[in-house]
Amino acid sequence: MHLTGKQKRHLRAQAHHLNPIFQVGKDGVNDNMINQIAETLEKRELIKVSILQNCFEDKQDIADELSEGTGATVVQVIGHTIVLYKESKENKQIELP
Fold it and tell me: What start-end ranges are recorded for coiled-coil regions in this protein (predicted)?
């Protein structure tokens, strides 16, 4: 799914108040983490993932890996935080402009 600039701005504003739910550590991204994030995205649509200091992978690579594995769109990578969005099939809560 490709988001326009206006849609990304809207999602960034909504994500501002969220706390990161998942953390990527020194082991990086694994299949179990991807499955859990995919399930959470189905329930919440918009989540933050935190990258810990001991993670040696590039944060953009992690964002791409999570996006690819879950089918989500990377809204933003800022500092050590990734914001992911995926439209829910059953729990649609966020209306994009």
Answer: none
CA distance 3 to 7: 6
Joined together, the tokens standing for residue 1 give 């799914």
Spatial separation of the C-alpha atoms in residues 31 and 88, rounded to whole Å: 20
The domain in which residue 25 lies consists of 5-85
Nearest to 29 by CA among 90, 82, 76: 82
Give CA–CA dist 30/36, Å, rounded. 10
Q: What is the CATH number of the domain that holds 26?
A: 3.30.110.60
* Residue 50, CA atoms < 13 Å, CB-side half-sphere: 9
Q: What is the pLDDT of residues 41-83, one digit of tens each?
A: 999 999 999 999 999 899 999 999 999 999 999 999 999 999 9
29 within domain boundaries = yes
The model's pTM: 0.93
Residues sharing a CB contact under 8 Å with residue 13, sequence separation 6 or more, in sequence order? none
